[in-house]
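Researcher: Next entry in the queue.
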Amino acid sequence: GGMAQARGLILAGSAAGIAAAFNTPLAGIVFAIEEMGRAYEARTNGLVLTAVILAGLASLGLLGNYTYFGVARDTVAFATDWPLVLACGIIGGGV
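Model: Structure for this entry, 95 residues:
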């Protein structure tokens, strides 16, 4: 049917968009299943999976392998920082 096919294409498009935008293929699939699919049908599995894989490959090809949320490169000096971490833990646990 036309409506079921349209619903499947919308599901695949939303999953592919999330997967490509955030470089997270699994999040795209989970988003499609949880948020977009009111009645998720097993026959749309292949369509969603194909769309997510192709979107991920296109994203890698165009933008390269990137981390959307960034990477923290901070270090912790044991002598000065860990006593503060311990104090925060004790105070936070007491509150």
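Model: The radius of gyration is 21 Å.
Researcher: Noted, moving on.
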